[in-house]
């Protein structure tokens, strides 16, 4: 099992940072992560493509995430369409499988490639969260989002350098005021809420070509109606990142299976329990959404 991809020191520092420098807690976290990986056969997850392709396309259209490019420092830029992701074309297990596959592909392929290109360890990425279209109905996705966030926090800690939040509607602003005080100082420093689509601020750290499509002009949002077709939309299965990822997983499946047919069905990964802070944040978020919903009714 190799979770450091040739950079063991940087990997250990991630766990240490996630536990505020407490060696005992960081060691416990690392052991629990390795146990989770072993129990759920995470090392094999990139040999298990989601088939048929129409099912995978449905997942990509409703779990909006992709790599739009790289920052000027060589960090991968991951775009996430928080507001318009509906998670309604497959079971929870398929969405979790897809998320972990992207994490593993990032760690095994994207980051090592970036490190080689830059000539130094690239172990983190930037994330741009598009809040366009965020509605109170997102409350129904809290359980799935809790599972995905907890998996990341406990098993892929400190992989994100900075979170940039763009296209912010009122509902996000209202929730952010309540949740921000609950976050650890370390986490708060990573989050930047930008004005509008964030284009001007983001162009200071990346070239125009690496901007996600929803940041290229005011009011563009995560919508799928892009002037250049789906190629510029990094959420689409037709984007080069997702084509490369899907081809990679299919190829790994063929190598492992030695020509055996690819099995249908999702991978069932055990969802780790969120820590006390995580539980408090999601409970607060749920209450805030319900309160906003009641206000709307009134």
Automatic annotation (TrEMBL):
CDD domains, A to Z: SEC14
Domain CRAL-TRIO, residue spans: 52-212
PROSITE patterns: CRAL_TRIO
One Pfam family linked to the record: CRAL_TRIO_N
Highest taxon in the source lineage: Eukaryota
Entry's Gene Ontology cellular component terms: nucleus
Name of protein: Sec14p-like phosphatidylinositol transfer family protein
Native organism: Arabidopsis thaliana
